[in-house]
Amino acid sequence: MTEKSMRERMLAGEPYIADDPEIARDSARAMRLTHAINLADPTDRDTLRALFTELLGAFGEGAEIRPPFRCDYGFQTTFGARSFANFGLVVLDVAAVTVGDDVQLGPNVQLLTATHPLEPGPRRDKWEAAEPITIGDNVWLGGGVIVCPGVTIGENTVVGAGSVVVASLPANVVAVGAPAKVIRQL
């Protein structure tokens, strides 16, 4: 039985150390493509679409992400049809990030899958892991929303600006605050 590479461990959702040549290669690819995206003419939709299509695991028909944009790997992120992200989206896609169809993301939204050990020793030794994020269809995340590892947000849900989503939210609700709490049904 062969031992898994750190990249294989990362993709399996297991603890890993990021100083792996395969992980470095994936990261460098994402850095090159996000650099090109962030330097592209923002009115050149064809170039931006081609770059996002190359970078991301999927980039749906009619989708738009306004630069600047940052991500760890890109291939771990799928962005649904007709979804829109305003300026400054950050996606730490160590684990899968799934953005559904018709999603609206305000400026400076952060989708953060990465986790680190609470115990000081493993953290000092650079162990880390990640948990996936899923954003359902027709969700609206207001400006500055932070979505933490392992969170699923149900379809049609609205999350108020500046909220920090630390636990999954059901479909068809409005949630606000830090941590985000459901304040009403839709």
Roughly how many Å apart are the termini? Answer: 52 Å
- Spatial strand sequence of the major β-sheet: 3-6-9-14-17-19-20
Q: Mean pLDDT, rounded to whole units?
A: 97
Annotation field: number of helices: 4
- Strand-residue proportion: 25-35%
Question: What is the molecular shape?
Answer: globular
**Unreliable segments (pLDDT under 50, ≥5 consecutive)?**
none
Instruction: Characterize the largest beta sheet: strand count, sense, and whether it forms a barrel.
Output: 7 strands, mixed
Find the count of extended strands (DSSP E, 2+ residues). 20
Helix content: 10-25%
Radius of gyration: 17 Å
Q: Give, in order, the helices and strands.
A: HEHHEEEEEEEEEEHEEEEEEEEE
Structural class: alpha/beta
Describe this structure in words.
This protein is an alpha/beta fold and 186 residues long. Helices cover 22% and strands 29% of the residues. The chain is built from four helices and 20 strands. It has helices spanning 6-11, 21-39, 45-55, 120-124; strands at 16-17, 58-59, 64-65, 69-71, 77-79, 84-85, 89-92, 97-99, 104-105, 110-112, 114-115, 127-130, 133-135, 140-141, 146-147, 152-153, 158-159, 164-165, 173-176, 181-185. The protein has a seven-stranded mixed beta sheet, with no helix packed on it. The chain has a five-stranded parallel beta sheet with strand order 2-5-8-13-16, covered by helices on one side. The protein has a five-stranded parallel beta sheet with strand order 4-7-10-15-18. Helix 2 runs antiparallel to helix 3. The mean pLDDT is 97.
